[in-house]
Amino acid sequence: MLCKNCNKDLNPDTNFCGLCGAKVIRNRLTIKNLFEHFSETFLNYDNKLLQTFITLFTKPEVVIESYIQGTRKKHVDVISYFAIALTLSGFQMFISNKFFPELMNVDFLAQKGAEDFQRNNMNFVQEYQSFVYMLIVPGYALISKIVFFDYKKYNYTEHLVANMYITTHLAICSSILVFLALFFGINFGIISLISIPAQILCTAYYFKRLFSLSFKIMVLKTLFFSLILTVLLIVFSFFTAITMYYNGTLDQIKEAQKAAIAISKQVQ
Questions:
Q1: Could you write out the DSSP letters of every residue in 38-101?
Q2: pTM for this predicted structure
Q3: What is the pLDDT of residues 175-187, one digit of tens each?
């Protein structure tokens, strides 16, 4: 008998290949053994995905530092975890837009007349969320490297790994939270507003664990991180406003706002 993965000669009674470690499959594929494989891979308490997910809640420094130090077997590696988050986020967006479109309407968060601009921004983020995540993580890594300039524990690449694990874990938690919220009829915009401070607190907790920070230092570092991020957002908003001015988007928003005000006056 040959291994179906590496073609090594195997003893007929063996269950695993001694060369590549693959499990020997003797039975034809059925719904039953397909479900058993799914349960063994994703629902078993001992599997790496579930262990990684749980440990990133309880001891995030164990997962992150293990990967940085070269231990790659105990937990899901950062790239695979990132890919899982993107897949889950994409699935969540598909289900949300397909079956809960009314709960995905966040017009109440926009100024009158700017609803179309808000929808376009949301559609852009949903369509290019993978690209957005890939831009956000290196930015966060750079900010955390600056914030922890007085800690020589990690270089930039290691900050990148830490932030990728953190951002990925929060994205997975966010997708699960959105699924639950939509099931109970809660608007996506409300969940987004709630999740922002929650993500800030979680990120502060992760870095507290990574760098063994006191509560006081954690608060100061969080404020420093938030300050840098706010400055970058202001700069980004400034350049966005200039772009909107030159391509006529600002004029369109102003006209839409005037029209909305005029309609509201007529109704009154």
A1: HIIIII-TTSHHHHHHHHHHH-HHHHHHHHHTT--SSS--HHHHHHHHHHHHHHHHHHHHHH-G
A2: 0.73
A3: 898 888 888 888 8
